[in-house]
């Protein structure tokens, strides 16, 4: 009897961490894109949000919290020492001790300001990437690793606002 192909097994049954990341990315995309809706659509979106939470929880065995739209807030347990821009997040979630939040911001300078504040608070810059329309900063503090992504609209695009996305995870000890 031939042993199963390990690659096929890996593809057929992804590890929970990879599944959680993939499901989170899909959920974030669906929920953020559904943000500008009328009241009936908002009721449907609430059902979609609950359904996304349930699917991710069932598939990964992880307890998550997802918030979207005008009523979104930072997830319960968000580290108080992590600065955020003014206003409410467009999307936020918490899962397995980590957090994600996306804010609409005035411009890319907001990401720079948050990054500079984290550095002033003792966070160490681990990486920085500038891809023109997207800037990414990865910083580590004593308890938290923070990835900030500033996304800017194309030149002349007035239909999209700049956004700042946080991925906050505990520093492995």
From TrEMBL:
Origin superkingdom: Bacteria
Key words of the record: Signal
The protein's name: Secreted protein
Residues of the signal peptide: 1-34
């Amino acid at each position: 009897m031939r042993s199963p192909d390990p690659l096929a097994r890996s593809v057929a049954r992804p590890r929970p961490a990879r599944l959680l990341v993939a499901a989170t990315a899909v959920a974030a995309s669906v929920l953020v894109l559904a943000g500008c809706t009328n009241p009936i659509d908002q009721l449907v979106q609430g059902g979609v949000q609950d359904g996304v939470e349930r699917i991710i929880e069932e598939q990964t065995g992880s307890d998550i919290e997802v918030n979207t739209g005008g009523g979104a807030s930072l997830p319960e347990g968000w580290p108080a020492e992590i600065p955020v821009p003014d206003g409410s997040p467009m999307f936020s979630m918490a899962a397995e001790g980590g957090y994600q939040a996306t804010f609409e911001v005035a411009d890319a300078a907001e990401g720079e300001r948050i990054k500079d504040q984290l550095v002033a608070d003792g966070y160490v810059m681990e990486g920085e990437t500038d891809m023109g329309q997207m800037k990414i900063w990865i910083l580590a503090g004593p308890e938290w690793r923070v990835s900030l992504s500033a996304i800017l609209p194309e030149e002349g695009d007035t239909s999209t606002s700049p956004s700042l996305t946080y991925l906050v995870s505990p520093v492995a000890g």
